[in-house]
């Protein structure tokens, strides 16, 4: 059957109450392992001098460069030595409450399927390359590991308060599309960028997007687009800064946010500390300017 029509082969896999499945690592085909290797090689060439040092160092110490799609059990054995985090297989996107519960217990839910050949560059749902190559390495960094656990716990509270949309923006603009300022210049830590060849270059080098200093309330008010490169990237000073920002009572913040209007993805506000003001040329003609 033409691969184009092939659906995610884990879609009907028996799943547990926590939405995890068996990875069935031995059932990956040589074509699927080869696709991982090509995606890996392409990013490995682009990331030096662009990805943050913590990511590059962690990718090394977790031996992610081994051949083929990693066996989550083996990878978790190596990862848990550093921060106690584990990688658990899921069939695809899982409900928010289940997702937050896993993060709050230092389990990262990673899609077990690999994208089909015809979706090499555009992903409709997070696959094993996005989740394991993009998200897992920084889980070996103690401060980042603590931040993501805290995010999981915050997610459970946000769900109870009906504030998920605000907290999801924090995840989007940091864990998925975050930049960090270093003494060598801006670097990437967001998994959505680190697993995308085009956005790896665009996020740091294109004149289109805004690059604005991270501010928690500003980020939680800022809408985002899921179908293209980001119109604005937020830049943190360190993972310590990110973690420290999370250790505050979000209740008061949510009360504030209820009174504040949302901010459009490409907008600049007077209070922003602007690193680069985008000319948005990339978005013109894409109906996003
Ligand atoms: C808000 C929350 O972060 C987001 O909606 C979710 N992300 C994910 C998810 N499920 C998976 N597997 N991966 C995600 O990144 N469920 C919910
Ligand atoms: Fe992701």
Brief summary of the model shown:
The chain has 289 residues and is of the alpha/beta class. The chain is built from 12 helices and 7 strands.
Sum up the structure in keywords.
EC 1.14.16.1; 12 helices; ArAA_hydroxylase; globular; five-stranded mixed sheet; monooxygenase; 10% strand; 289 residues; binds 7,8-dihydrobiopterin; alpha/beta; binds fe (iii) ion; phenylalanine catabolism; 7 strands; two-stranded parallel sheet
Task: Give a verbal description of the structure.
With 289 residues, the protein is an alpha/beta fold. Helix content is 43%, strand content 10%. It has a five-stranded mixed sheet with strand order 4-3-6-5-7. Helix 6 runs antiparallel to helix 7. The N and C termini lie far apart (40 Å). The site of 7,8-dihydrobiopterin has 10 residues, from helix 4, strand 2 and helix 7.
Could you give the topology of this structure?
Elements: H1 30-46, H2 53-61, H3 72-83, E1 86-90, H4 96-104, E2 107-111, H5 128-135, H6 142-161, H7 164-176, E3 179-182, E4 185-188, H8 191-194, H9 197-205, E5 210-213, H10 216-221, E6 232-236, H11 239-246, H12 250-259, E7 274-276
Parallel strand pairs: 1-2, 3-6, 5-6
Antiparallel strand pairs: 3-4, 5-7
Helix pairs in contact: 4-6, 6-7, 6-11
Fe (iii) ion binds next to helix 5 and helix 8.
Spatial extent as radius of gyration: 19 Å
The major pleated sheet works out as:
5 strands, mixed
Strand order of the largest sheet: 4-3-6-5-7
Number of strands: 7
- Please tell me what the overall shape is: globular
Q: What small ligands are held by the chains?
A: 7,8-dihydrobiopterin, fe (iii) ion
| Helix and strand sequence | HHHEHEHHHEEHHEHEHHE
The average pLDDT value, as a whole number, equals 94
């Amino acid at each position: 059957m033409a691969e184009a029509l092939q659906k995610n082969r884990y879609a009907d896999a028996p799943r547990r109450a926590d939405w995890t499945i068996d990875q069935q690592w031995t059932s990956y085909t040589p074509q699927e392992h080869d696709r991982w290797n090509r995606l890996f090689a392409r990013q490995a060439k682009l990331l030096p001098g662009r990805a943050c040092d913590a990511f590059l160092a962690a990718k090394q110490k977790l031996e992610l460069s081994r051949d083929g799609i990693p066996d989550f059990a083996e990878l978790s054995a190596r990862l848990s030595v550093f921060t106690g985090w584990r990688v658990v297989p899921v069939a695809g996107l899982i409900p928010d409450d289940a997702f937050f519960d896993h993060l709050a217990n230092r389990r990262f839910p990673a899609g077990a399927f690999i994208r089909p050949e015809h979706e090499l560059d555009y992903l409709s749902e997070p696959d094993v390359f996005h989740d394991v190559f993009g998200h897992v390495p920084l889980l070996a960094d103690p401060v980042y590991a603590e931040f993501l656990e805290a995010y999981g716990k915050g997610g459970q509270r946000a769900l109870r308060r009906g504030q998920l949309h605000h907290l999801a923006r924090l995840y989007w603009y940091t864990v998925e599309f975050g930049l960090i300022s270093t003494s060598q210049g801006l670097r990437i830590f967001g998994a959505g960028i680190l697993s995308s060849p085009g956005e790896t270059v665009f996020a740091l080098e294109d004149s289109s997007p805004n690059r604005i200093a991270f501010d928690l309330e500003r980020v939680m008010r800022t809408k985002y687009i899921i179908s293209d490169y980001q119109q604005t990237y937020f830049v943190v000073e360190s993972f310590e800064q990110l973690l420290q920002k999370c250790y505050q009572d979000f209740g008061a913040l949510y009360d504030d946010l209820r009174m504040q209007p949302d901010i459009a993805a490409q907008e600049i506000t007077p209070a922003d500390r602007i690193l680069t003001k985008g000319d948005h040329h990339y978005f013109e003609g894409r109906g996003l300017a």
